[in-house]
Write a structure and sequence with these properties.
With 605 residues, the chain is an alpha/beta fold. The protein is 31% helix and 15% strand. Helix 7 packs parallel to helix 9 and helix 8 (261-275) packs parallel to helix 12 (392-399). The protein is globular, with a radius of gyration of 25 Å. The structure holds calcium ion.
């Protein structure tokens, strides 16, 4: 170890000198040293289904000291966007362009009949794009990946085929954390690759979050000191359901959520105001109409519902713990100071219990499969192998505070993600908050810019789509406050839900009963909870954004699906009846309290 440490320190010194040489301040070093690469290492950490308000520096009570430390040294971004689910976000992350161009116009699992065979709906990261890790690799970076891929399983689609020089990757969108038990009938076993080969067997003592971290450290260590920078993509599975934890992590949040979701959310909102994440007076989204007030539940059921949130919180802290191990390693080998860190979640908090969803398909293969492979019936077993616990909508609203809805939907709760950028190349006030409108497509543009690589119009003889994302480099260097100007805008479509954001304004179309199956308009600066639909009051703004929606559809060849995941949702949930002040009357009446003294029944006194 001693020897290894020495050679690392030597390696980083060489790179440091390389930087000086590039600046023209050192003259007398040999050609070998002059050739050393001064570009920073890059560590890109993506959480899976983590909410906006979970980490400490975004207002959460969950203990995330390592992410918080990155936020304190770097910058938090309040208006960073992804797509509403995993694979569409990941396609935009790696390609730098819209998901309807990159091949995930719809998730592979839910492709609609009218989308089959349409370019942009291949269900894999397609050949119309070049993944930026490929370009980084070509430009002299080591490119490492661990964790969840979800962008195609065939040999020409796996990480090794898209530019990663080393990988340890799960192909599926989710599964067990302890073994290769999959979620869907169509993929009963999760498929893994390591360095471009399909794995026959997982390593001994496999636990996803820990093993992914071990592998990333192993990859970095294997080439350390060779003078080349590395790009490490850590695509954690955590805290995606099912919640699976090592034994000694199961009780870390015992009783922490017994007070219920309403109080926990209120406490988070207060901290978010204190931290400056949201302005004072922010109106949070309403508690969803089909959820009870937590205080109305008896203590027993309330504690049982809280158990799921206890496990979720432990999943987030466990991920933070392993992120801390990676950071600790980089510090120990002297690479921390020359590393840029980017952290975000791939979509909003998960409010749909996938276990319930699978169970609910009567007579389908998935129904049978769920019954055979997963159990959510015994709360004492939640968190252990074979169990399926997921927090559900009530806690998702806490995780996504102050926003409306959650994963799968294009309300802010589905697509706004906590972003932290920290480390090498970030020259902004430590611990500051930035409100520029940002998008996951920007990451490719940013990292290519930092690596000094121009995105090509063709790659190995095939034409590739141009970047739609914008580089953050000028902003990170303090030369701009946002990568976007007043005329820039963003668009989304998933499962027929639609959205446009331009400046402070958002146009939104959601299926019933979550939405109204028509356009809604919100001012996100004054109303991030999307509580006041202004489409009637601001017809001109609505018209302006509707024109952008048409442009978005045309430019990205958006095909609205003729079948979708939410088509029976209105029948599954209680009817959504508007609640006004004074109606229903029972809600607004004060309870009758009998007088303290017993009455004389005969005299009435
Ligand atoms: Ca996800």
């Amino acid at each position: 170890m001693e020897q290894a440490m020495n050679s690392t320190n030597a390696g980083s010194t060489v790179r440091g000198l390389g930087a000086l040489l590039l600046l023209g301040t050192a003259v007398s070093w040999g050609p070998d040293l002059a050739a050393a690469d001064a570009r920073p290492n890059i560590v890109l950490i993506v959480a899976d289904d983590m909410g906006y308000a979970d980490m400490g520096m975004f207002g959460g009570e969950i203990r995330t000291p390592n992410l918080d430390a990155l936020a304190k040294e770097g910058v938090r971004y309040t208006d960073f966007y992804t797509s509403a689910t995993c694979s569409p976000t990941r396609s935009m992350l790696l390609s730098g362009t819209d998901t309807h161009i990159a091949g995930l116009g719809n998730m592979d699992e839910y492709i609609a009949p009218n989308q089959k065979g349409v370019p942009g709906y291949e269900g894999v990261l397609n050949d119309r794009v070049v993944a930026f890790p490929q370009l980084l690799k070509d430009a002299g970076y080591h490119t490492y990946m661990v964790g969840k891929w979800h962008l195609g399983k065939p040999p020409n689609r796996i990480p090794a085929a898209r530019g990663f020089s080393r990988d340890f990757t799960m192909m599926q969108g989710g599964g067990s954390y302890f073994d290769d038990t999959g979620l869907m009938a169509r993929s009963p076993k999760s498929i893994f690759t390591e360095d471009g080969k399909y794995l026959a067997k997982l390593p001994r003592k496999y636990y996803a979050t820990r093993t992914f971290t071990d592998k990333m450290i192993e990859f970095i260590e294997s080439n350390r000191g060779d003078g080349k920078p590395f790009f490490g993509y850590v695509a954690h599975q955590a805290p995606h359901d099912p919640y699976h934890l090592p034994n000694n992590w199961l009780r870390r949040y015992e009783k922490a959520y017994d007070q219920g979701w309403d109080i926990t959310r209120k406490q988070r909102l207060m901290r978010m105001v204190e931290l400056g994440i949201i302005p004072e007076g922010t109106q949070p989204a309403d508690r969803m109409w089909f959820l009870p007030e937590a205080v109305n539940l008896a203590p027993g059921p309330r504690a049982m519902a809280a158990r799921k949130m206890e496990l979720y919180a432990a999943m987030v802290e466990n991920m933070d713990h392993h992120i801390g191990r990676l950071i600790e390693y980089l510090k120990k080998v002297g690479e921390y100071d020359n590393t840029l860190f980017i952290f975000f979640s791939d979509n909003g908090a998960e409010g749909t219990d996938l276990g319930a969803l699978l169970r609910g398909r009567k007579g389908s293969l998935n129904f049978l499969f769920h019954a055979i492979n997963w159990s959510q019936t015994n709360p004492a077993a939640w968190g252990r192998p074979g169990s399926y616990a997921s927090a559900g909508a009530a806690w998702a609203q806490v995780q996504a505070a102050p926003f409306r809805l959650y994963k799968g939907w294009l309300a802010e709760g589905g697509i706004r993600s906590p972003l932290v950028v920290s480390g090498a190349g970030v020259h902004r006030q430590a611990g500051s908050i930035n409100r520029g409108v940002m998008h996951v497509m920007d990451v490719a543009a940013t990292l290519l810019d930092i690596a000094g690589v121009t995105h090509p119009s063709s790659y190995k003889g095939r034409e590739v789509a141009p970047l739609q994302g914008k580089s953050w480099k000028p902003m990170l260097e303090g030369e701009a406050d946002s990568p976007r100007g007043a005329e820039d805008w963003l668009g989304w479509e998933l499962w027929g839900n639609r959205a446009i954001r331009k400046g402070d304004w958002k146009l939104l179309w959601l299926h019933k009963p979550m939405g109204i199956a028509d356009w809604e308009l919100y001012n996100l600066r004054t109303d991030p909870g999307e509580t006041q639909d202004l489409s009637g009051k601001q017809p001109e703004k609505k018209k302006e954004l509707l024109a952008l929606w048409d442009e978005y559809v045309k430019h990205n060849n958006v095909i609205l699906p003729d079948r979708h995941l939410f088509e029976s949702l209105e029948d599954q949930l209680p009817q959504r009846v508007p609640v006004n002040e004074g109606w229903p009357p029972m809600n607004s009446k004060k309870p009758f309290v009998p007088p303290k003294e017993p009455l004389d029944a005969e005299s009435g006194k």
